[in-house]
UniProtKB/TrEMBL annotation:
Annotated InterPro entries: AAA+_ATPase (IPR003593), ABC_transporter-like_ATP-bd (IPR003439), ABC_transporter-like_CS (IPR017871), ABC_transporter_ATP-bind (IPR050166), P-loop_NTPase (IPR027417)
Domain of life, per lineage: Bacteria
Family to which this protein belongs: Belongs to the ABC transporter superfamily.
Function noted in UniProt: Involved in beta-(1-->2)glucan export. Transmembrane domains (TMD) form a pore in the inner membrane and the ATP-binding domain (NBD) is responsible for energy generation.
GO molecular function, one term: ATP hydrolysis activity
Species whose genome carries this gene: Bradyrhizobium nitroreducens
The name this protein goes by in its record: ABC transporter domain-containing protein
UniProt xrefs under CDD domains: ABC_NrtD_SsuB_transporters
One Pfam family linked to the record: ABC_tran
Domain ABC transporter: 22-255
Keyword field: ATP-binding, Nucleotide-binding, Transport
PROSITE patterns: ABC_TRANSPORTER_1, ABC_TRANSPORTER_2
Length: 273
């Protein structure tokens, strides 16, 4: 999103000219275990263009979160590299912000406003007054003005996730990383938040890497759907979902079918996932 803020990219993005913001090249990742190195991901390559959302999709345990953590800088590659805006990632940094699935990722002792403002001050991105202004702005974007002075325990799960998203976006990261952010929500709230995130991503030209194991969510939220398979996993295929605007549309069904086929699943699974 780079210094754009909310005002930035209200103009539509010309995707044909969009350049990669995130590049993952030949990435292999693993975990040290008592029995030796356990390789989780092998030779994964993909890129995410500026202002677009890429989905990591695949069965449980295929390495989606592992890749996301590596992009965040928490896990070092065994091989290959991650670059964000042409800078190699070797540790966590302010150019990447992460939203997790868990509702308890907020500071319980801080108000909603302060949850969003505090990281801006702590990272030196803003003075106290600027941080408050920016936090108020982003609470507005996520329709949370009325909750500004509440504490996390007074919020619903969906509201907590919206605060976590506002907090991440307020940092104006080059890449926003989302690890199943709506996985613990009821279907109705989940759909509402999916549509809100799509709208905010469009307005702010955020570049997003989004983990899910829902085909329907992938088809709705993503521009590209990166399908992982195998053990250790690698990229099985990448499906273009740019045609999908409505979860109930023919286009959504068609993309869902393509994805299901790549994952070796029955197309009927798509509708109910
Ligand atoms: N800390 C760890 N130590 C050892 N192995 C791990 C660790 N974390 C994950 N793994 C293993 O790495 C592989 C990939 O896990 P990961 O959590 O990235 O998968 P995932 O696709 O995100 O799964 P899910 O959809 O269930 O969240 C799995 O085999 C998992 O058991």
């Amino acid at each position: 999103m780079e210094q754009s803020g909310v005002h930035a990219a209200e103009a539509p993005i010309d995707h044909s000219r969009a350049t990669p913001m995130l590049d993952v090249v030949g990435l292999s990742l693993g975990y040290k275990t008592p029995a030796g190195m356990s390789v989780a991901v092998r030779d994964v390559s993909f890129s995410v263009r500026r202002g677009e959302t890429a989905i990591l999709l695949g069965p449980s345990g295929c390495g989606k979160s592992t890749i996301l953590k590596s992009v965040a800088g928490f896990i070092k590659p065994l091989q290959g590299a991650v670059t964000v805006a042409n800078r190699k990632v070797d540790k966590p940094g302010p150019d990447r912000a992460v939203v997790f699935q868990e509702f308890d990722q907020l500071f319980p002792w801080r108000t909603v406003l302060d949850n969003v403002a505090y990281p801006l001050r702590a990272t030196g991105k803003a003075t106290r007054a600027e941080a408050q202004d920016r936090a108020n702005l982003w609470l507005g974007v996520m329709r949370l003005e009325a909750a500004a002075h509440k504490f996390p325990h007074q919020l619903s799960g969906g509201m907590k996730q919206r605060v976590a998203i506002a907090r991440a976006l307020a940092l104006e990261p080059a890449v926003l990383l989302m690890d199943e952010p709506f996985g613990a929500l009821d279907p109705q709230t989940r759909l509402r938040l999916q549509l809100e995130v799509i709208e905010v991503v469009k307005r702010t030209a955020a570049t997003v890497l989004f983990v899910t194991h829902s085909i329907a969510e992938a088809a709705l939220v993503g521009h590209d759907i990166i399908i992982l398979d195998g053990s250790p996993s690698s990229v099985a295929s990448i499906v273009d979902a740019r045609s999908v605007c409505d979860p109930a549309s023919q286009e959504a069904l068609e993309v869902g079918r393509q994805v299901a086929q790549s994952m070796g699943q029955e197309a009927s699974h798509v509708i109910g996932d």
